[in-house]
Amino acid sequence: MPESLSGSFTSGYEQFWRKSTGGVEEAIKSSLIVLDTNAVLNLYRMKPSAREEYFRVLSKIRSRIWIPRQVADEFHQNRLSSVSTHVNSLKSKADSVAQASEDLRSALRDFYKLHSIADGKSNEYLNPLDNMLKKITTTVSKEVSDFDLSPEGLLSRDSILERLDSLFDGRVGDAYSEDDQKEITAEALRRGKGKVPPGYVDVQKKAEKGVGDYFIWHQMLAKAKSDSVDILFISTDVKEDWVRVQCGFTIGPRPELVREMRNVAGVSYHQLPLAVFLSEVSRVLNVRVSQDTIDQVNERIPAEAQSKKRARERGFIQRRLREAEERLSAAHAALAETEDAMAVSAHRIRAVRSLLEEAQTKHAGDGEAIPVRNALIDLDVAQFQHHQALGELRKAQQRYEEERNVHDAYSAQLANLLNADRSSEL
């Protein structure tokens, strides 16, 4: 262990914590900013206004941008298909909105016909709704028609590519030789088999066709080492071999990546989702980025990744819900037991009081008053126990209410996640 870490409880564990606001600011201001493939391809999925804001950000940080050769390869392979997929997705969602609107109209018309609850005034209720639905579907259709890119249009002239060529000129890593590619591919497969991040998720799914993530990482390591510069990686990738998720929360990059970058290159490493990066850049470097642009980037997270993220959150919440149910059950049992104790003590008080009253009547003024005194003592004890039980009952009721609130909160979170899953399937 390095001498600087000897005896320390926190030094050396920074990779397990979410980076502070100041740490993120410093990374944005001084690190080499490396863009992942989708962080570049997102330009082809944005509306023109958002695209311009993103280009302003890229221009602001141009001197510190670096593009791994693997990213450039993947970009040119997927440039047209990313536009095609996005356009088809827009049309599909617009069709879904139109169909859902018509289904709602039809269901309401059938409902009014069946129950006649509108007293002949169904149009009075339906017309405002119909106007609102028309406005929604018209807006959605306009969003589709206003999107300015198409695969065929990019064949003759691609203004985005022209601007990227100007921005990234001289800032792209060198290509590997054929022998180097074979060696790095073998290393990617070895690491994939051992689940060493990053890249093992794709390698385990696609074998040699899934080594791209490791190529990007290998190139980042080499660049950081040769230039002795800290790395800030901007990506939309939320797979488990890139990010550390604990208790349903994304903490940051995998600790293994931070350690490997430090051990190999002697520099620090951090990564941010593109949406978070744009939001932080707006604040740190004083470049205007609207919330609409950030929202568009957030929506570009692949559906599979979103589903997996929700699945992790569901798993965490379901575990907490089961624990809450167990505690709620225990609290309910304790409450029932305390209520039983209250009933017993109340019965005992009534019985003792009855005995005392009988003794007082029967032995008033004679020498048989000893049982009465004993009964009085017994009554005092019973009353004390009753008050104790009352206090425990109140505590049990409070615990039960607290556990019920926790249980209800987890139930609501789970319901929200399930609704999100159902919505994503539309």
Structure report:
With 426 residues, this protein is mainly alpha-helical. It contains 15 helices and six strands. The protein has helices spanning 21-30, 37-41, 48-60, 69-115, 122-146, 151-156, 159-168, 178-193, 200-206, 212-227, 255-265, 274-284, 291-299, 303-363, 370-424, and strands at residues 32-35, 65-66, 231-235, 243-246, 249-253, 269-273. It has a four-stranded parallel beta sheet with strand order 2-1-3-6. Helix 1 crosses helix 12 (274-284), helix 3 (48-60) crosses helix 13 (291-299) and helix 10 (212-227) crosses helix 11 (255-265). The chain is elongated, with a radius of gyration of 34 Å. Residues 422-426 have low confidence and may be disordered.
**Looking across the biggest beta sheet, what order are the strands in?**
2-1-3-6
Strand content: 5-15%
**What letter string, H or E per element, gives the SSE order?**
HEHHEHHHHHHHEEEHEHHHH
Whole-Å distance between the termini?
Answer: 53 Å
Radius of gyration: 34 Å
Helix content: over 70%
Give the tally of β-strands: 6
User: What best-fitting shape do the alpha-carbon axes yield?
Assistant: elongated
Q: Runs with pLDDT <50, length 5+?
A: 422-426
Mean pLDDT: 80
- Summing up helix and strand content along with how strands pair, one would put the structural category as mainly alpha
User: What is the count of DSSP helices, taking H or I runs of 4+ residues?
Assistant: 15
Main β sheet profile: 4 strands, parallel
